[in-house]
């Protein structure tokens, strides 16, 4: 084999190694982004669940207040 062929082969091997290195770095970046997005999604799901619980408590409080007001109005009508 001539030196030219070996040099070309060496260049192609080096390009392949460089490409593989870049792709590995990109994979690591994407893994980090995926992890961050997964954590964000988990946090949002937890926040959603907390908001649903708070909403239910507020609905129950609202219903209780409505019942109290109705009871008071009923008593006022009895007095009249």
From TrEMBL:
It is found in: Cytoplasm. Its main location: cytoplasm. Gene3D superfamilies: 1.20.5.340. InterPro entries: Cell_div_ZapB. Keywords: Cell cycle, Cell division, Coiled coil, Cytoplasm, Septation. It holds the Pfam family ZapB. Residues 6-68 form a coiled coil. GO terms for biological process: cell division. Non-essential, abundant cell division factor that is required for proper Z-ring formation. It is recruited early to the divisome by direct interaction with FtsZ, stimulating Z-ring assembly and thereby promoting cell division earlier in the cell cycle. Its recruitment to the Z-ring requires functional FtsA or ZipA. Belongs to the ZapB family. Homodimer. The ends of the coiled-coil dimer bind to each other, forming polymers. Interacts with FtsZ. This is Cell division protein ZapB.
């Amino acid at each position: 084999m001539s030196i030219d062929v070996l040099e070309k082969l060496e260049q192609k091997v080096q390009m392949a190694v460089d490409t593989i290195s870049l792709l590995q770095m990109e994979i690591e970046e994407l893994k980090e982004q995926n992890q961050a997005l997964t954590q964000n999604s988990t946090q949002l799901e937890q926040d959603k669940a907390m908001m649903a619980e708070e909403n239910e408590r507020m609905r129950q409080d609202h219903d209780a207040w409505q019942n109290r007001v109705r009871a008071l109005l009923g008593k006022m009508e009895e007095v009249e």
